[in-house]
């Protein structure tokens, strides 16, 4: 038994080292990497839930192996002899009822606590964005920011020739107000580890049409519609560009200015290009390309 234990421990060590995973990746247990403060809270709930499940599993496996190894039927024993019986063992029955109830209660407590933290909202977010979904694109409005040079709200509307860019600041509390103009859509950014259905106005099924988060790192992240909404659903993409607070302030300022080449306020892509901060400010450098809504323009392939 001692030799078997050593071989098993060595095999486990080799298997762990052979994966080439870091400690953070091991403790992630397959949970996707998130870029928001709320995603981190969900990740830790997942990690400790898996650890607890592994501990319970190890105890159960240990009891199974203990019964198999030490309570096997003896050779030359009476075939009619039964193992020791435990009917009406109050202590054992109490243990088997109470312990699972405690485990479920603890899991429920931490799940509800994490859910409340993820869905909590402050009354005074730093940035508010109105997200309007329509077949088959997105509109992003900034009601709390200064108006552009024409006196209109800063607005980004996607079309078949341009993927809309939702520019957001890093380290600020952001509120997303969701609304659809036609059918049910779903606002999903995989790196947020969060998605929410977008219902037509007025809201249906008592749906909470807003949520808040705080992005932890700068970068470009692809967003998608996660609810089938028609023929071009798979192409209903957008791009989230998270900028440091100083760059975000410059971006908003650029959106309020007139582009001399067009005579109109800068679009999201033009304002990003004006920041001149490398790939982080290069329009559509990090996500998918726009789609063509003309079905006759697609040639058949063989």
Task: Explain what the structure shows.
A hairpin with a 4-residue loop joins strand 11 (258-259) and strand 12 (264-265). A five-stranded mixed β-sheet has the order 3-2-1-5-8, with no helix packed on it. It has a five-stranded mixed β-sheet with strand order 4-10-9-6-7. A two-stranded antiparallel ribbon has the order 11-12. It is built from six helices and twelve strands. The longest helix has 34 residues, at 37-70. Helix 3 (37-70) runs antiparallel to helix 4 and helix 5 crosses helix 6. The protein has helices at 2-18, 23-28, 37-70, 90-119, 245-255, 268-275, and strands at residues 127-134, 137-142, 154-157, 165-169, 173-180, 185-189, 194-198, 210-214, 219-225, 237-243, 258-259, 264-265. 21% of the residues are buried. The protein has two domains: 18-69 and 87-119, no CATH class; 127-288, Cupredoxins -  blue copper proteins (Immunoglobulin-like), CATH 2.60.40.420. Mean pLDDT is 81; it is low at 288-293 and 295-302. The protein is of the alpha+beta class and 302 residues long. InterPro entries: CcO_II (IPR045187), CcO_II-like_C (IPR002429), Copper_CuA (IPR001505), Cupredoxin (IPR008972), Cyt_c_oxidase_su2_TM_sf (IPR036257).
In short, what is this structure?
The protein is built from 6 helices and 12 strands. It is 35% helix and 21% strand. The longest helix has 34 residues, at 37-70.
């Amino acid at each position: 038994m001692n030799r078997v234990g050593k071989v098993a421990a060595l095999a486990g060590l080799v298997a762990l080292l052979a994966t080439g995973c870091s400690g953070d990746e091991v403790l992630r247990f397959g949970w996707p990497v998130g870029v928001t403060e709320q995603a981190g809270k969900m990740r830790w709930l997942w990690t400790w839930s898996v650890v607890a499940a592994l501990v319970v599993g190890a105890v159960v496996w240990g009891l199974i192996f203990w019964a198999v190894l030490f309570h096997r039927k003896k050779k030359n024993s009476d075939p009619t002899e039964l193992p020791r019986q435990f009917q009406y063992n109050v202590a054992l029955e109490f243990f088997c009822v109470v312990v699972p109830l405690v485990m479920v209660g603890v899991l429920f407590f931490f799940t509800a606590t994490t859910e409340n933290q993820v869905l909590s909202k402050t009354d005074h977010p730093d940035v508010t964005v109105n997200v309007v979904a329509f077949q088959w694109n997105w509109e992003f409005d900034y009601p709390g920011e200064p108006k552009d040079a024409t006196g209109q709200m800063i607005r980004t509307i996607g079309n078949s020739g341009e993927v809309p860019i939702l520019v957001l600041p890093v380290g600020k509390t952001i509120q997303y107000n969701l609304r659809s103009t036609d059918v049910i859509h779903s606002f999903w950014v995989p790196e947020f580890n969060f998605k929410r259905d977008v219902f037509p106005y007025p809201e249906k099924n008592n749906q909470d049409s807003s949520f808040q988060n705080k992005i932890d790192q700068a970068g470009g992240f692809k967003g998608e519609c996660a609810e089938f909404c028609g023929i071009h659903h798979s192409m209903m993409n957008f791009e989230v560009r998270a900028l440091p607070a100083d760059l975000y302030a410059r971006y908003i300022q650029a959106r309020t200015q007139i582009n001399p080449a067009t005579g109109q306020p800068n679009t999201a892509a033009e304002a990003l290009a004006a920041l001149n901060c490398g790939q982080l400010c290069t329009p559509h450098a990090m996500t998918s390309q726009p789609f063509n809504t003309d079905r006759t323009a697609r040639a058949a392939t063989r």
